[in-house]
Amino acid sequence: METGSPAGAGTTGTEPVWTGLPSGLLRMRRLLLVVWLGLIALALGLLLGLLAGPVWAAFALLPLALLAWGWVLLGRNWRSWRYAERADDLLISRGVLWREETVVPYGRMQLVEVTSGPVERHFGLASVQLHTAAAATDATIPGLDPAEAERLRDRLTELGEARSAGL
Fold first, then answer.
1. How far apart are CA 121 and CA 119, in angstroms?
2. What is the pLDDT of residues 81-95, one digit of tens each?
């Protein structure tokens, strides 16, 4: 679910061009949800079934209900994440109930990192972390394609150096 052109930085008039996160991030998070809550449901069902009887094993359905609820919430959360590159700053928007929009001016960026843990690497994902002088404006864009993460890092670093040098 990508909106706009990932390589196209800038705006059309005054509206920013928003880019959504790749669906690989949603697949990874949902798989982790199924694995962990599935294991908890299985262990709880076995333990309660063996120790307290088969009627009590029905409590193993609670983690499965939580899994169904989490499945829906993860989808809504994933759809809420987006970012836009504008002429002077980067916008990051996220949140379902409480919408949060972070504006990071290019000239305030001190460090732009691309990170990828073992699970992210398995799913072909990377995150971009932005560090500024004010910790309150630090931001992260999770679950990007590694090539897009590197392109974004290079572009943000280039723009940050140009803005901080006063060019």
1. 5
2. 999 999 889 999 999
Q: State the CB neighbour count (10 A cutoff) for residue 156.
A: 19
The two most distant CA atoms of the chain are separated, in Å, by: 73
Residues 60/31, Cβ–Cβ less than 8 Å: no
pTM across the whole model: 0.80
Of 19, 6, 11, 9, residue with least CA distance to 94: 19
Q: Which one-letter DSSP state was computed for residue 1?
A: -
Residues in the chain: 167
Which of these, 122, 119, 112, lies nearest to 150 by C-alpha position? 112
β-strand partners of 126: 144
